Amino acid sequence: MALTAHVVATVLQNTPDSYNLDLRRYVAGWTIPGWRFFAPNPGVHNVHLLARTRGTESSDRPGDWRDVTPPTHHSMLNVLFNPRSRGPKALFDAMQQLSVMQSNYSAMEWMVTSLPYRLVTDATRGFLQTEDATQFQFLLMNYYPAAQPGRRMLPVLVSMWMPLHLAPESST
Description:
Elements: H1 2-13, H2 24-27, E1 46-54, E2 66-67, H3 86-103, H4 108-111, H5 115-127, E3 135-143, E4 153-158, E5 162-163
Antiparallel strand pairs: 1-2, 1-3, 3-4, 3-5
Helix pairs in contact: 3-5
């Protein structure tokens, strides 16, 4: 009976804030676990990395934006062992950091020298290495699945045009 009461109280305590009951008067000092995953800022959007390329001349028409965000593959094994999660997680964290910088009105000159910007740039360049173009640009796009249609996508940051293929560094 006590275990059932504890489980019920825990469930009631962890409902969304608008439905929370003040259970303190019913439990006489008994501690009820309270979990707030991702608090105080729960994830409400997905960040996508889009890229486009163009040829040698700056007058060349740019290609269409393409989503180059690495796909996330989920399986039951990922709960126990997920060795391929670090690369996508590092890219996601860098994109999130750029979103925070942009929302805090950071100067573009400062952003382009930041480690997150360089990481996203290098990752995008790596995704596009097989392209026949000479320049590329990336776009960070926030996607809000719960928003009204027409308001689900919000562009965050558009990079400057950058060379797609870097010259090899000499060891001299």
